[in-house]
Amino acid sequence: MRFEAQRQEALLQARRSSASQSGDPAADAPQAAESAARARRHAASTCGWCGGPIRVRATGRLPKWCSASCRQRAWEQTRAAASGRSAVQIVERRVETPVAIPPTRSDWPRLLGELVTQLDTGRIYNRDLDEMSAALIAISASMTRRLYIRSRTAPRAH
Ligand SMILES: [Zn+2]
Prior knowledge:
This protein has 158 residues and is mainly alpha-helical. It folds into two domains: 2-83, no CATH class; 108-153. 56% of the residues lie in helices and 0% in strands. It has helices at 2-21, 30-43, 68-83, 108-120, 129-153. The chain is rod-shaped and about 115 Å long. The structure holds zinc ion. Zinc ion (ZN) binds next to loops.
C-alpha cells in the first residue's frame, strides 16, 4: 500500500506539471480553447493506473486507462477503497486439528468407570459388544500377567 501511495503521488505530480506546462488558456478565445482541449488530450495520454502511454484519438471520450486490464484494476482499487478494505484481502485461518491425548494412569479408573456406566445404561449397542468384549478380555489377560509378575518380582505388594 505504501508503494501504491507513492505511485499515485508521482502520477498526480506528473499531471500537475503537465497541466502547468499547458499554461492558462484564455477561455474566451476559441483558438485558446482549442489548444486547451489539445493540452487536456495530451495530459490525458498517461494511464491513470500504470502510468504508461495512452493512445488518444483525435475525437471521442478521453481514455483514463491504457488498457481494459488497467481500467479493471483501477476500478477494483476504487471499490476496495470505498469498502475500506484492500483490493486483495488475505484471510488467514487457524485450523485446529484435534489430537487424541493418550489417557494416563490416573485417567483409567474414571474412564473404565464410565465404560461400566455406558454398558449398564445401554449406551453401548449390542453390535459393539463383541469388539468391546475382546478388548476387555485383552485387558483382563494383561492385568493378570502384570499381577503375576508383580507377585514374583516385588518382595511385598504395595
Ligand atoms: Zn495502464
